[in-house]
Amino acid sequence: MEKFDEFVATIAALRSENGCPWDRKQTHESLKECLVEETGEVLEAIDKKDDANLCEELGDVLLQVVMHAQIAAEEGRFTIEDVISGVNEKMIRRHPHVFGDIKVSSVEEGLDLWEQIKQKEKEAKSGK
Across the chain, which distance is largest between two alpha carbons, in Å? Predict the structure, then answer.
């Protein structure tokens, strides 16, 4: 995690008062096209089975995630730690066959379980 923390600090420095004018100017809205572009480049690298490029492009997608989280942190909305905690909790919650007592015997059963849990979460959020 040391390298990740270092990267988060790099992004914070780029967005700081003495950072890069371009990075400081960015918003969630202005970065939307960058996120789409970088995601497309990941897909292209996968299609080409180009591991070196895939590694680089995954880094660019990670940059987008950390940049969005940094912007949100500056606005007091959420942090990268919140993003990581939320996705980790979701993975544990949606995999009771790995982290709990439920058993599945196929990929299909695992996917069905995932969808059932996801649906229950949506219903709980909407108050149904």
Answer: 55
CB < 8 Å & 24+ apart, contacts of 115-118: 117/93, 118/94
3-state secondary structure 41-78: HHHHHHHCCCHHHHHHHHHHHHHHHHHHHHHHHHCCCC
**Residue 14 tokens, joined:** 């780029």
Nearest to 103 by CA among 113, 88, 118: 113
pLDDT tens digits, 50-96: 999 999 999 999 999 999 999 999 999 999 999 999 999 999 999 99
* Distance in angstroms (rounded) separating the CA atoms of residues 38 and 63: 10
Question: Which residues, 6 or more positions from 65, have their beta carbon under 8 angstroms from its beta carbon?
Answer: 80, 83
Rounded distance between C-alpha atoms, residue 88 and residue 9, angstroms: 21
